[in-house]
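Notes from the 1:1 (GR / supervisor)

We went over the backlog. Supervisor wanted to see one worked example end to end before approving the batch request, so GR pasted a single chain during the call. The sequence is below; no edits were made to it. Supervisor asked that the structure be written out right there so they could see what the output format looks like.
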Amino acid sequence: MGTSTNGTPSPPDVALPPELAPAALTLFGDRLDVAAAYAELLATDGVVRGLIGPREAPRIWDRHLLNCAAVVERIPSGASVLDVGSGAGLPGLVLAIARPDLTVTLIEPLARRTSFLIEVVERLGLTRSVRVFRGRADEAASGSSGREPISGDVVTARAVAPLDRLATWCLPLAVRGGRLLALKGSSAAAEIEEHADTVARLGGGDTAVHLCGVGVIDPPTTVVEIVRERMVGPARSAATKRSRSGRARRR
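Structure output shown during the call:
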C-alpha cells in the first residue's frame, strides 16, 4: 500500500479486498464500479477535508460501504430516502449507489461537508437521484427561509446520536407509515428500552432491531427500525427560529 506526497492514501489502499468481493458484488451488482469510485473519493478528498480519518482508508469497504449497503434490504422499491447528518454520505450515498430506484436527500448542516457531497454527487453521476440539503433536520422538517418542508418514506442516520435525539430529529421527516432506520451497534436493544417513551410521544409505533446482510457480510449491520404511526409536528425551538438560511440543491 502506498501513500501520496500529501499524506493521503493512494488508490491501491482502498482497492476492494478479494475476500470482500462476493459481498460487494451481491450488494452493488453492476454499480460496483461506482462504489469503487466513491471509496477512492472518501480515501483521498474525504481524508484531506477531514471527513474520514486517515486510518479508516484500509477499512472503507467493510466498515463503511458494505455496512451501509446492507441496509437496502429494509427499504422498499422506489422509496424516497432522507439521510440525516449525512457527513461524508454515509449511508445515504451508499444507498443511492446500490439502489438507483431510490431518490435520496442528504441532509447536512456544515458547509464543508455539503460542498464535498455536492461534488461527489456530480462526479459519480448521481445528480438525477440525489440532492443535497444544507441545514438541520428540524429545518428540513418544518421549512425555513422560504423552503418547503420535506419528508420521505425512509429516514436514515448512522453514528449521529442516541435514539431519543435521533427520533426527535428524524421521525418528523417521515411520512405517516414511513420509518426511521438507525444504524446502531450492540447497544440497540438497550436504547429502545430506555427511550421507548420518547419514541411513542413523537408518534413512533412498532420498533424492532434487525440484522441486515446476514450471510453476506460479517458482522451484519444492526438497524433499529421505528415506524411513524402518528403525525406529531416537529417542535420549533428558538434555535430554529433564528437559524441561518440553509441551501437546498435539487438534483
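Supervisor's comment: The mean pLDDT is 87.
Batch request approved.
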